[in-house]
Design goal:
- The complex is a heterodimer of chains A (232) and B (218).
- Chain A has 232 residues and is α/β, with parallel strands linked by helices.
- Helix content of chain A is 20%, strand content 27%.
- With 218 residues, chain B is α/β, with parallel strands linked by helices.
- Helix content of chain B is 16%, strand content 26%.
- In chain B, strands 4-3-2-1-5-10-12-13-14-15 form a ten-stranded mixed β-sheet, sandwiched between helices. In chain B, strands 7-6-11 form a three-stranded mixed β-sheet, with no helix packed on it. A two-stranded antiparallel ribbon of chain B has the order 8-9.
- The mean pLDDT of chain B is 95.
- Classes of the chains: A alpha/beta (232), B alpha/beta (218).
């Protein structure tokens, strides 16, 4: 089944105000940057964004925040973004902070048809407020529910016309789980090849999860913390 | 003399055991990787999705697709593997990682830890810390004994929002190595040249002090 769309405009067609979007990436690593730029252009408002981080002030999801398009963020860590912190502390932005492993598992559960699960993460903290607690193996766990989205937007290294995806290094992060949890999943890839050119043994995300795939026009791949050692 | 950050990292590195998989948090814990005792092999996990994390890359060889949980560019060692975030936390939750080292703003004598939020001031989020402390069998906290105002961060009860309850077993500060058991801090070692009296005066929580407190050997 051919999943290829011509460009980012076509890929994100149908995103409207008030929708819930999952956006892959960890920090600025493995984010769908072409799609984020298009979301800014589209200017849809009151979006709920599920993403581990909120980008930085002038890149990643930070661009949507600057443009006041986001009503609510569901994330685990938002420390690199001053505008985020300002909007959150002033109450303009609703924020649901979730332990990172619970966020990943909630996306995975959403895609896997598991409505909820128990985890020890967050027990005894404000994350547990209002959640059912059960003791398993002598240890308290809290009930976390699955997450799904109207659109899941992910970034992969290579993809084929069938929507099969391969990620590179730690740019994989949240992308595979989010790809499974969107009503419509859009994959933005660096390299788009014909079906058959990727080895089926190497596929991380099978094409069944992907409705639309396109080759990103350009990737800046900004580095958040450039740490190096000098050659001796 | 109180230890510096490197000293704290060196002392924690002595806790590493051959064959362990270890998760290091941001800040002082990251430095632990530089002082692995000779003759042992450990593998570092970073929760964004790598086992076998290596040193920082040489200048010009940075890869935007290869970072650690602190968003720093890194390298992968021989035998490393990459995986998604759900798999990463399955490793952590499933207790396949033997040791977690992380920083804290406060710890309590019941083993509670607070390190993610100062209400009204700083709300960065917990990242993976809540998953790590809730599941790891073996947690060492690397922290300073007091805050900038000189107030103890080694407390009877944490005052900040908690990251986890009853989970911390050991604390290494610039002054001391403390073990937490039976609802009390136990003084195991003092930093070279630091007196027991100084440690007592800077510890707000209940502290059990044995007759002889050895100096750390670094």
């Amino acid at each position: 089944m051919n999943k290829v769309v011509n460009n980012v405009e076509e890929a994100l067609k149908g995103i409207e105000d008030n929708m819930t979007l999952m956006v892959g990436g960890f920090g600025l690593c493995g984010i769908p940057e072409n799609s984020i730029a298009q979301l800014v252009k589209m200017g849809k408002k009151n979006l709920t964004c599920i993403s581990n981080n909120a980008g930085v002030d002038d890149f990643g999801l930070g661009l949507l925040l600057q443009n006041k398009q986001v009503k609510k963020m569901i994330s685990s860590y938002v420390g690199e973004n001053d505008e985020f912190e300002r909007q959150m502390l002033s109450g303009e932005l609703e924020v649901d902070l979730i332990p990172q492993g619970s966020l990943a598992e909630r996306c995975r559960a959403g895609g896997a048809g598991i409505p909820a699960f128990f985890t020890p993460a967050g027990y005894g903290t404000e994350v547990a407020e209002g959640k059912e607690v059960r003791v398993y193996n002598g240890k308290p766990h809290i009930l976390e529910t699955a997450l799904t989205a109207d659109f899941a937007i992910v970034k992969a290294w290579k993809g084929d016309t069938e929507g099969n995806l391969i990620y590179k290094a730690t740019a994989r992060n949240f992308n595979p789980m989010m790809a499974t949890a969107g009503k419509i999943t859009v994959a933005e890839v660096e390299e788009l090849v014909e079906a058959g050119e990727l080895n089926p043994n190497d596929i991380h995300t099978p094409g069944i999860y992907v409705q639309r795939i396109f080759k990103g026009e350009k990737f800046e791949k900004r580095i958040e913390q450039r740490t190096v050692q000098s050659k001796k | 003399m109180a230890l510096d950050k490197v000293g704290i990292a060196k002392r924690i590195a002595q806790e590493l055991q051959d064959g362990w998989y270890v998760n290091l948090g941001i800040g002082i814990p990251t430095l632990v990787a530089n002082y692995i005792p000779e003759g042992i092999e450990v593998e570092f996990q970073s929760e964004n999705g790598i086992l076998g994390m290596g040193a920082f890359p040489f200048e010009g060889e940075e890869d935007a697709d290869l970072i650690n949980a602190g968003k720093q560019t890194i390298t992968a060692r021989k035998g490393a593997s990459f995986f998604d975030s759900a798999t990463s936390f399955a490793m952590i939750r499933g207790q396949h990682v033997q040791l977690t080292v992380l920083g804290a703003m406060e710890v309590s004598q019941d083993g509670d830890i607070a390190n993610w939020k100062i209400p009204g001031k700083m709300v960065k989020g917990m990242g993976g810390a809540m998953d790590l402390v809730a599941s790891a069998d073996n947690i060492i906290v690397a922290m300073m004994h007091s805050n900038k105002a000189g107030e103890s961060k080694i407390l009877k009860k944490c005052t900040l929002p908690l990251t986890g309850v009853g989970c911390v077993k050991k604390v290494v500060t610039e002054l001391a190595v403390l073990e937490i058991k039976q609802g009390k801090f136990h003084l195991l070692e003092r930093a070279p040249g630091v007196s027991v009296e100084e440690i007592i005066s800077k510890t707000e929580g209940d502290l059990v002090v044995p007759e002889f407190v050895p100096e750390m050997v670094l």
